[in-house]
């Protein structure tokens, strides 16, 4: 069980499962979307992801025909991404989770395209791309 919220607190959600497939992605797309060195995202089944408030305060950014990203229209916090061809899963941004995350991070990906100032200092497996 996890809870999460955006920076302004309008968007609040609850997750009733362990988060799976937790990956730190260093690709240029994730860097731009988050404004950071890398994105740390994980999967939950959409049926186990529930908004407690603020669902109507989301803005959808259609990145392409298949992928949409949702962010809080008040504070800009990135909340989640969804794929049209895989609606059963929601990809959530771990930085929004307010309780402790015990689940392990699986890997770093797109390490070959990371920013030159991004120094990886852990023993989690690294992949050049996927
Ligand atoms: Zn917000
Ligand atoms: Zn990425």
Give the topology string: H per helix, E per strand.
EEEHEEEEEEE
β-sheet strand percentage: 35-45%
Helix-residue proportion: under 10%
How far the N terminus sits from the C terminus, by CA atoms, comes to 28 Å
- The CATH architecture name reads Beta Complex
| Rg on CA atoms, Å | 14 Å
Biggest sheet: strands side by side, in what order? Answer: 6-7-8-9-4-3-10
CATH topology: Metal Binding Protein, Guanine Nucleotide Exchange Factor, Chain A
Number of domains: 1
Domain CENP-V/GFA: 2-118
InterPro entries: CENP-V/GFA (IPR006913), Mss4-like_sf (IPR011057)
Protein name: Glutathione-dependent formaldehyde-activating GFA
Pfam families: GFA
Describe this structure in words.
By secondary structure, the chain is mainly beta. The protein has a single domain (2-113), classed as Metal Binding Protein, Guanine Nucleotide Exchange Factor, Chain A. 5% of the residues lie in helices and 39% in strands. The chain contains 1 helix and 10 strands; from the N terminus they run βββαβββββββ. It has one helix at 28-34, and strands spanning 2-5, 12-15, 20-25, 39-45, 49-53, 58-62, 67-72, 78-83, 89-93, 107-109. It has a 7-stranded mixed beta sheet with strand order 6-7-8-9-4-3-10. It is globular, with a radius of gyration of 14 Å. It starts with a strand and ends in a 21-residue tail after the last strand. The chain binds zinc ion (2 copies). The site of one zinc ion (ZN) has 6 residues, from helix 1. This is Glutathione-dependent formaldehyde-activating GFA. GO terms for molecular function: carbon-sulfur lyase activity; metal ion binding.
């Amino acid at each position: 069980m996890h809870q999460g919220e955006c920076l302004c607190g309008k968007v609040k959600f609850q997750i009733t499962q362990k988060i799976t497939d937790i990956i730190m992605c260093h690709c240029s797309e994730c860097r731009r979307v988050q404004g950071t060195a890398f994105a740390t995202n994980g999967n939950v089944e959409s049926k186990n992801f529930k908004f407690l408030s603020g669902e109507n305060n989301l803005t959808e950014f259609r990145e392409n025909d298949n992928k949409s990203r949702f962010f809080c229209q008040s504070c800009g916090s990135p909340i989640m991404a969804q794929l049209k061809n895989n609606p059963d899963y929601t990809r959530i941004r771990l930085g929004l989770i307010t309780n402790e995350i015990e689940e392990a991070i699986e890997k770093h990906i797109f390490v070959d395209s990371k920013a030159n100032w991004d120094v990886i200092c852990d023993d989690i497996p690294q992949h050049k791309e996927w």
